Amino acid sequence: MKLLVCISQTSDTTSKISFNADGTEFNPAGVQFIMNPYDEWYALVRACELREALGGTVVALNVGPAANETTIRKALAIGADEAVRIDCEPKSAGFVAKQIAEYAHNEQFDIIFFGKETIDHNGSEVGAMVAEYLDLPYISNASRLDLNGNAATLDRDIEGGVETLEVDLPFVLSAAKGMAEQRIPNMRGIMTARTKPLKEVPAVGFEDNAKAVQFSLPPAKAGVKLIQPDQMEELVRLLHEEAKVI
């Protein structure tokens, strides 16, 4: 079985975010970067579990510059057999999807894994775009995956219940909570990650119709106002005049 796990590097949620002077580009200075948790905890770990149970190969793929290789090596430490880095700066969801699809086109992967979204942009777009490029079925927000020969059964949470789907291999999925349990790289995994292959491939040309026009930070939150229990009229006034529904 040949499995591809697409991993993204994102900023840690505790990092303070800023943009350049005209607000058109993200400023990476002083930001701590990590592997996107949905890719790491659910997609990558479930792929490794399947490889351990059924045999095969897990390939971790990242679209990004050489600076991302620390994150890619963590994927190898967790259990991926080899890794690929498509050498470019990721520009948009469409651009990234095109790079992944071009690489995967001739590789004959049985399953292509994504996390359900990245924690920075929260777009949930790339997996569906890759499936469209490759003309493969796409199952989003999957919380369980079982294989039986050349077929798979998947669950995904929907409003008020769980939807169970069946699909033949190959297919693309995005993994959500419940797909697997987080793994912490052990010392053996960290040491062997140094010797596992990490292949660099060039990016393909892509006419990107999406362009970031402006980034902006949300307005600062106002401080908490404490109202005494006997000041109900003041509480009502504040709710009417100052409280905002989010």
Descriptive terms for the model:
Rossmann fold; 246 residues; two-stranded antiparallel sheet
Helix-strand blueprint:
Elements: E1 2-6, E2 9-11, E3 18-19, E4 26-27, E5 33-35, H1 37-54, E6 57-64, H2 69-78, E7 82-87, H3 93-104, E8 111-115, H4 126-134, E9 138-148, E10 151-158, E11 161-168, E12 171-175, H5 187-193, E13 198-202, H6 232-241
Parallel strand pairs: 1-6, 1-8, 6-7, 7-13, 8-12, 9-12
Antiparallel strand pairs: 2-5, 3-4, 9-10, 10-11
Helix pairs in contact: 2-5, 3-4
Explained architecture:
With 246 residues, the protein is of the alpha/beta class. The protein has one domain (2-218): Rossmann fold. The chain is built from six helices and 13 strands. It has helices at 37-54, 69-78, 93-104, 126-134, 187-193, 232-241, and strands spanning 2-6, 9-11, 18-19, 26-27, 33-35, 57-64, 82-87, 111-115, 138-148, 151-158, 161-168, 171-175, 198-202. A nine-stranded mixed beta sheet has the order 11-10-9-12-8-1-6-7-13, sandwiched between helices. A hairpin with a 2-residue loop joins strand 9 (138-148) and strand 10 (151-158). Helix 3 packs across helix 4. The longest helix is centred in the N-terminal third of the chain and has 18 residues, at 37-54. The termini are far apart.
